[in-house]
Fold this sequence. Notes:
alpha+beta, 137 residues, globular, four-stranded antiparallel beta sheet
Amino acid sequence: MPFHRTLLERLESPPVGQVRSLPGSLGETIDSIRHHLQVMLNSRHGASHTAPDYGTSDFSDFFAGYDSIDILRREIQRSIEKYEPRLADVRVSFSPREDDPYRIYFEIVASVVSEDEKAPAVFRTVLEGSGEVKVNL
């Protein structure tokens, strides 16, 4: 059963008077997923002792070129498929922008999985020149 909030979110704000929280709205779930993706994509391999492959490689080590973009795309997809169980049918694609050569844009299209249904979701990811990743809806 997928959770609608991450473990840390549930620990930070436990439900009052309940042992377990009820599922949140789809909007709350999508925002929680967006937040987790941003945390995960800004984490580097080796930062977690319990899951050494959590996160991604240091993007600043990559050089410019299509091969590097495809490696980044596949790495983002692998991380999401492995560490974000609330998403299914994940597709990550490069979204080039000629007007902004200092950032790299990816689009993440997936299905949010709940107990009774799947709902489509799109996350727009920006890799800043500083190496920071921002995830927007």
